Amino acid sequence: MTLDVEWARRWVALAAQAITEAKDELVELDREIGDGDHGVNLDRGFAAVAAKIEGMDRPATVGEILTTVATTLMSSVGGASGPLYGTAFLRAGKVSGLAELGPDAVVALLEGALEGITSRGRAGVGEKTMVDAWAPAVEAAVRSAGAGDEPAAVLRAAADAAADGARSTIPLVASKGRASYLGERSAGHMDPGARSSAILLDAAARAAA
Ligand code: ADP
Ligand code: MG
Ligand code: MG
């Protein structure tokens, strides 16, 4: 089993739908420790992405789709998360310029995304950001692919680890981004970007299932 362009198209469609469904939740999370725009920013961005990808005339590769996702997010999301997700999808797209992805290519895609986020935002694990979802997701994907799993199972492992990672941000004190302005008062709330990252990875896994 490999993942192809149709998988990438399904991922985008499911991601846009899931972000719309989670819009209020993401706004609420960002209201607790930020400025309350994360759900609105991302919903606007992924609606633009979905329209763009639907209108694409026969994209040849997964990389082509991910690169279009990146440039669309960069021009439509804004805030901290626009450039972060934009760079994530840009790097993900670079490492997956294949027509079909096996388990190792899925790992490379996820590693590219994490690398894009950390090169842009300079956050490490435990700083209460989206890195706390992506880093364990990559670790889980590496383990799953190493154990001989199919791409769909690799993505499921990554998505589940991202969900755990998002929950793990609740007790943390933020040291990057807007939430860091709150200092100790940022503890007790889930990071909105970690939550949206888990949602995006869950959509990727569902698209492959
Ligand atoms: P803004 O804070 O500009 O309003 P958003 O609300 O769209 O932007 O996104 C906030 C999210 O961005 C945070 O929840 C966090 O996950 C992520 N974030 C902020 N700064 C960084 C960083 N330096 N590295 C990684 N992620 C970050
Ligand atoms: Mg915000
Ligand atoms: Mg903002």
Automatic annotation (TrEMBL):
InterPro entries: DhaK_L_YcgS (IPR012737), DhaL_dom (IPR004007), DhaL_dom_sf (IPR036117), Dihydroxyacetone_Kinase (IPR050861). It comes from the Bacteria. One of its GO terms (molecular function) is glycerone kinase activity. The keyword Transferase applies. One of its GO terms (cellular component) is cytosol. Residues 6-206 form the DhaL domain. GO terms for biological process: glycerol catabolic process. Keywords: Kinase, Transferase. This is Dihydroxyacetone kinase DhaL subunit.
